[in-house]
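Appendix B, Record 12. Input sequence as logged:
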Amino acid sequence: MNLVNNPDMIPLVGVVASMVTAIAIVGTVYWHKTRTKELQFHQDLRIREMEHQRKIKELEVEMERIKARSIPTHVA
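Logged structural output:
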């Protein structure tokens, strides 16, 4: 089946091609939005993780400070 031999197929091929193009554009836009949301989620998660690590370090420093104060130092 050749388009040159069957000119009645040209409109059908045009309609199918335009539908496939529209579906591809919508799919690409949807994928882009989803990917953007995913990257934002990962960025927020990483920021929260870094803040948590900072708080842990602050608590460790505070614990060391308290331990240093509670140990009496005897100077001979």
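The chain is about 80% helix and 0% strand.
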